[in-house]
Write a structure and sequence with these properties.
Blueprint lengths: L5 E5 L8 H14 L3 E4 L11 H18 L2 E5 L10 H12 L4 E7 L7 H9 L1 E3 L5 E3 L14 H6 L3 E5 L8 H14 L1
Parallel strand pairs: 1-2, 1-3, 3-4, 4-7
Antiparallel strand pairs: 5-6
Amino acid sequence: MRPVHSIWLAGPDSWLPDASAQAARQRALCADVGLIGLTAPAIVAVAPETAEIQTRELYAARMAQLRQADAGVINLTPWRGPSCAASAAFEAGVLAGMGRPVFAYLNVADESQAEYVDRVEAHVGAQRDEAGVWRDGDGCVVEDFGLPETVMLWAEARRLFVIVTDDPLHDLTGLEMCLDALALYVE
């Protein structure tokens, strides 16, 4: 197994109003256990005339950081809907594709939001059909495996912790738990 020195930290955190402070807290928790926390820079305004160049540079820089990471801790907290930030899912997939271990956490405000199907039902509406299959308003199947996230994200994570908290976007209990699980994994 490859030694773990640096961890990519993905999630909605770089979009928060206090993104820089949140990243500093994350990196400090990693440093406390002897690891380097790699975080995405806070998202800033983009000039329309250079937007394409800026986004391609951002993508290249982010991919370079992902290649440097020995493991990932992915914040799968639902963001702007029933699922995690799309970039977090992508980055988890990139890390998995590179053979890096992935750990994850998901913060919710209430235990009733702990399962993916329940969040879909609450956000976009879903109901069981005559066969008992959950379907959204368009008739599409909604995953119902009793999991906190979709199968592909849940199954890739070596551990996925669900934290009920009053502050889903800032609580780092799940990060601390993932760091503990990572320590056991590398032993």
